[in-house]
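Hi F.,

I've been meaning to write this up properly since the lab meeting, where we talked about keeping a consistent format for the predictions we share between groups. The idea is simple: the sequence comes first, exactly as it goes in, then the structure tokens exactly as they come out, then a line or two of notes. No screenshots and no reformatting. I'm using this chain as the first example so we have something concrete to point to.
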Amino acid sequence: YEILNYQYKVKKYDALRVYLDCSIGNLTMKAGNDRYIINGNIKYNSMLSKPVVGLTDKNNISRLDLKIKPNNSTEDNSKSLINSLIEDGNDNYKIKFEMPTKMSTDMYFDFGLGKADLDLTGLRISQLVIDCGLSDVTLVKTKPNIINCDKVQISTGMTDFNSTGLGNFNASNYIFDVGVGSAEIDMSGSAIKDSKLKIDVTVGSLELKLPTNTNIELTVNKNMLSSVNVKGLVSSGDGKYNSRKNQKRWSTMKADVSVGLGSVDIIVD
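Output, unedited:
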């Protein structure tokens, strides 16, 4: 195993874009102690391909690219590669990054096989797009976003997705595609503007927690083979539900949930 260390200063840039393409590995990401510095390290199996990491800039926007594709370095080493992947799996790449807390940041994550723990509390997220692939992903945001967020878009893939406080992103649009795995989507948080929530469940299972102190307008589309339970909202028929009480000072969340062969439990926090 080898360890690679990274540090990038981004203070002179207007914003940060993060692109992560990770076929296999364990990722841990959180806010760092530095306002304008990216710190990271990767421990990886040196028999496999070296991670590709770099910072570039264009039009005063910085871009962090991280790519992990576990190909063996020589053709004669294919047996060692296969044995290593079978024995150690995603432990062949252990990735840790601490992100700057004062930068407006877009994040685009494409995961393969592995695990990702993303605690984005304290970061200024302007857009978040995640394709979970075959990875178990945990996403946490326990404090309100202090900048405008355009969208949070997540495809949960075939494994488990767990979240806490997604309402704290204060995004205009939330889009979720729940495949054949399970997803716990917690929309609680301090949303101060109106938002739209769209969730498509194919054959997976969904536990959806909707926020209090928010005017909820929920529409559920399902077929006879799906199971949907809704608690804490008032049904007006035809798959439509509303909050028990509406307040003018509250923001409004318009939620649309479509279910194929999956099961859905919806509650108000």
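Notes:
The mean pLDDT is 92.
The CA atoms of residues 26 and 115 lie 5 Å apart.

If this format works for you, I'll send the rest the same way.

G.
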